[in-house]
Amino acid sequence: MNNSKLDISKRLKKYLSPQVFDLLVKCGIFIEENSANLFLVGGSLRDILLNKSPKDIDLTLVNGNSELVEKLAAYIGGQIIFKSQFFTYKIQVKNSVIDITEARKEIYSSPGSLPEITSKCSIDDDLYRRDFTVNSMALSLIPSKFGSVTDPFNGINDINKKQIRIIHDNSFSDDPTRILRAIRYSIRLNFKIDYKTLSKLNEFKNNINLITGFRVKNELIKIIREDSRSKILLSLHNLKIFDIIGLKININNQINKILDTFQFKKEYTDDLILIGILTYNLDIENIINITEKLYLDSTYIKTLRDTQEIKLFLQNIKLDNLNNSSIYKSLNPYKDEAIIINSYFSNTKVSNKLNLYLNKLKYSIPPLNGSEILSLGAKEGPRIKEIINELLYDKLDGKIKNKNQAIIKVKQILNS
Ligand code: ATP
Ligand code: MG
Q: Are 159 and 149 in contact (CB under 8 A)?
């Protein structure tokens, strides 16, 4: 093993968890025994060369097939949790997930269309279909070559120069989503976009309107999940990318600030909140246009609609004048994410009330349940639900403090 291989092995150990490292070694052994070849590729290798832990593990299998992937999954005690017709697989082993693609060649018949894909090719062919030099390297995982790096486009040199560079002149015309990716990576990694790449990016940026809304949505979601989302969006805005796609997204100082202060919370769907923030200031036609263009599903549509309804409601009603039960009744029909979006755009008083609902009021439970109310002499029917609600509202407003007071209230209702 030469020095650079030793160095890479050390880095793999440093930046991968021991479980994942052992898993990759094991995969390499099995694949070599089966006369195939296995590489660590893409962002995983790029990040390790940048002295970072990769977000996910991307592997490429050469000379294999789906049967071999299935055998490999069994050998490492894992399960295939996803398989697509494009020769890609996800294997889960305990709490680790690895992405495997069979090496493939892609042929683009027209700009922006989905490529024709053929498997059964070399690692060099596979690297040639990728987006940027820094993502187009491969590291051997089979024991006889463990740690040797294939770098046909001088990706290591570009890592050292901190630059994003396409690997051939047609890259952006073949797949214009790479324009969005180039900007995302350059800002995430703090790399510049190489001069020629930038000129090709400008030459082909109008092709962005050729990609399907579904693919734009996927890239947009990746962008809003980045820490530097506001910088990326601003850069896309300055390049007029949203205008070209036909999305009316206003990026301004207020939105940027909100995007920068945004914090992920595991109980909510962050993507909904972030898209809601981006579209908050738009009128309803533009919002509908975005949901249609990007094929956003019904959860998005409901969240964005709720957001606008709450916004209108807050313009007309002073929330801090309302008692708790009225706040509860007003906000209960809406999605939590729509309430959070509004809280980002509200003054402190209003946002405190919205948070009071989200953190406390929303979780209040009625002091008595249906069967308890029946046992007090109520008759079955829709009235029971109404009584339960009345009890809840009184509890929220502090009029009922315990079960006994609730029982007294029910008796009063039944006797009236
Ligand atoms: P991240 O760190 O965000 O996961 P990544 O580089 O691993 O970044 P993925 O989206 O996981 O990106 O894709 C894995 C690899 O697949 C990329 O590194 C790249 O080589 C290749 N790839 C993904 N999308 C494209 C594309 N549109 N065109 C060419 N290659 C792509
Ligand atoms: Mg990745």
A: no
d(CA 359, CA 339): 12
pLDDT attached to residue 6: 62
**CB atoms inside a 10 Å sphere around CB 309:** 14
As a whole number, the mean pLDDT across the chain is 93
Q: What integer is the mean pLDDT of 137-161?
A: 97
54 CA: nearest ligand 1 atom: 2
Residue closest via CA to ligand 1's atom 30 equals 130
pLDDT confidence bin for 1, thresholds 50/70/90: very low
Q: Name the residue at shortest CA distance from atom 10 of ligand 1.
A: 43
Secondary structure (H, E, C), 117-145: EEECCCHHHHHHCCCEHHHCCEEECCHHH
Ligand 2 centroid from CA 296, angstroms: 23
Domain range annotation of the chain: 1-156, 261-356, 370-415
Q: How far is the CA of 132 from the centre of ligand 1 (A)?
A: 9
User: Any idea what DSSP says for residue 226?
Assistant: S
- Choose among 392, 335, 343, 387: nearest CA to 366: 392
Report d(CA 265, CA 253) in Å as an integer: 23
Query: Is 1-156 a CATH 3.30.460.10 domain?
Result: yes
The whole-number average pLDDT for the span 132-152 is 97
In the chain, the percentage of residues whose pLDDT exceeds 90 is: 83
- Tell me, yes or no, if the pTM score tops 0.85: yes
The answer on pLDDT for 2 being more than 60 is no
Distance 42 CA to ligand 1 centre (A): 6
Q: Which of 218, 126, 136, 130 is nearest to 180 (CA)?
A: 218
41 forms bridges with which residues in the sheet?
138
Q: What is the per-residue pLDDT across 58-110, written as a single tens digit (0 to 9) for each?
A: 999 999 999 999 999 999 999 999 998 778 999 999 999 999 999 988 887 77
The CB-side HSE value for 3 (13 A sphere, CA atoms) comes to 0
Taking alpha carbons only, the member of 56, 116, 53, 124 closest to residue 87 is: 116
